[in-house]
Design goal:
Elements: E1 9-13, E2 23-30, E3 41-43, E4 46-53, E5 60-67, E6 70-72, E7 86-88, E8 94-100, H1 105-110, H2 120-127, H3 134-148, E9 154-159, E10 164-170, E11 174-179, E12 185-188, E13 205-207, H4 211-217, H5 230-234, H6 241-244, H7 246-256, E14 272-273, H8 281-288, H9 308-311, E15 322-330, E16 340-346, E17 355-358, H10 381-392, H11 396-425, H12 430-465
Helix pairs in contact: 10-12, 11-12
Length: about 475
């Protein structure tokens, strides 16, 4: 089987923990290499009656039923599968799939991964069009995993206007899901994070019908005090996890709970925390595009007392494998028809802006629908922001303050656009409203695209004028 994209970082936030009362699930989609062309598309509602076959792993099943409208950020090259990744449907249900994880060898020995199971490439397509709540999303995916199995260990996030859930698969057919408390948030790197399961609390936990018998029969629970921790039973605690994964949890919790002292190498940090202040979209953006900013572990070398060894010690969130970052926001202070916003960042997240897209739309901006193997920044949003990465990276310290100002200006513009669009959209309904939101998205994207091109032009001129490869008369004297 081909390799999945196992380098992602996720953050999920309950509605009473956000500054505006919205629910948020967000994830960086990274890859094995520096290139994985991405798109932003919308799929219209339709009746499904098809024999689905995954191009990635050969999964076969019959898909039948009415599916609603939904957005996605798929891979442009569909030859290796769909990889729809993240989106919001017309019922304002958001889904992000997946955060690649790992199951320990002991559990896999008793329930091996399934070669042609339900994997990351298929999950969103098989679930998001058919559910009307986050809870329904968990239930549908759980049934698919139990019936067809999975070939990967993954974390999947679901949300609606009220609830936020995190779903984890362990071994071939086992899974659990936990509802995040409304006043809390969670950080999810590439390891299992869900801890103690209360099998009697059906409001906040769901799980595979076989999982308790599976663990008991095979004597898999290492607890000495009767606790049932999914992380401890199914997860890994490899030395590499302390350098690749847990520092991301440490940094996220450092941002939102600065009074808590923790060791970035610790594998015992809690899954869920209550933040010390309300969390806004900008805070989530900062975390998802961060690189241990302000610490001695910043690989960009911006911390005065940092040394080379420490700066390269941990896997950064922002890195060259960044491809597409989405913040899926379902708001509670506006009519449901305009509640869903998908904030999208293509490229290297520390350099590119997040662009807000309403999801009650008929189409997406043209440059978000194109990304061929040819590098075409003029017509492709993906390649535009990837080109910005190529330009900034070798001159990071020369350009970063200008880039940061550009990102701040784009965010301020985005906020103003959402506010103005909300006001006008409230006066409309039905097809007129959908048409207006589609046009508003195009206008927002066009403005930020133009500003990005201006930045690239300016930085290119600066780079050319400061090239080290120059020679003047007399330089050899």
């Amino acid at each position: 089987m081909k390799k999945s994209k196992d380098n992602c970082t996720a953050m999920i936030v309950g509605k009473k923990a956000t500054i505006d009362g919205s629910t948020i699930i967000a994830r960086d989609e990274d890859g094995y290499g520096g290139i994985n062309e991405k798109l932003f598309v919308v799929h219209e509602a339709k009746d499904y009656d098809e024999d689905y076959v995954s191009k990635y792993n050969g999964l076969k099943l019959h898909l039948k039923g009415h599916g609603c409208k939904w957005t996605a950020t798929p891979t442009a090259d569909a030859s290796e599968g769909r990889w729809d990744e993240q989106g919001i449907n017309e019922y304002n249900v958001a889904m992000s799939a997946t955060e690649t994880e790992a199951t320990n060898a002991r559990c896999l020995g008793h329930d091996p991964l399934v070669k042609n199971g339900v994997d990351e490439d298929s999950m969103v397509y098989l679930v998001l069009p058919f559910v009307k709540s986050a809870r329904e999303g968990v239930e549908r995916l759980g049934k698919l995993i139990e019936k067809y199995g999975t070939g990967e260990s993954n974390g999947i996030a679901f949300s609606d206007h009220n609830e936020v859930w995190y779903f984890e698969t362990g071994a071939g057919h086992q899974w659990v899901a936990q509802r995040i408390p409304e006043d809390s948030y969670a950080i999810c790197p590439n390891i299992m994070v869900i801890q103690d399961i209360d099998f009697d609390d059906h409001e906040n936990f769901m799980y595979a019908s076989t999982i308790r018998d599976f663990v008991e029969k095979n004597r898999l629970n290492p607890s000495t005090d009767g606790k049932w921790s999914f992380r401890d039973i199914f997860g890994t605690k490899a030395e590499a996890d302390s350098y690749y994964n847990t520092p991301r949890t440490w940094y996220g919790q450092k941002l939102f709970n600065p009074s808590v002292e923790q060791n970035p190498l610790s594998q015992e940090m809690p899954f869920i925390r209550k933040p010390e202040k309300k969390i806004g979209v900008e805070d989530v953006e900062y975390f998802l595009s961060s690189h241990y900013n302000g610490t001695e572990y910043d690989p960009m070398g911006s911390f005065a007392s940092g040394d080379d060894k420490k700066q390269k010690m941990f896997r950064s969130i922002a890195l060259d494998r960044n491809q597409s970052s989405c913040i899926l926001q379902i708001r509670n202070d506006v009519p449901k028809e305009i509640a869903g916003i998908q904030w999208i960042n293509f490229g290297f997240y520390a350099y590119s802006p997040y662009v807000p897209f309403y999801t009650n739309i008929d189409d997406t901006p043209l440059n978000y629908q194109k990304a061929s193997h040819m590098v075409t920044p003029e017509s492709s949003a993906y390649w535009l922001y990837k080109s910005l990465q190529v330009l900034v990276e070798p001159r990071y310290h020369q350009f970063i303050y200008q880039v940061d100002n550009f990102r701040d200006e784009c965010q301020s513009y985005a906020v103003s656009r959402v506010s103005a669009t909300d006001e006008k959209a409230r006066e409309m309904s039905g097809k007129e409203q959908t048409k207006y939101l589609t046009a508003a998205n195009a206008e927002t994207a066009a403005h930020i695209t133009t500003e990005t091109k201006k930045l690239i032009s300016d930085l290119t001129r600066q780079a050319l004028n400061t090239s080290k490869f120059q020679f003047e008369r007399g330089d050899n004297l």
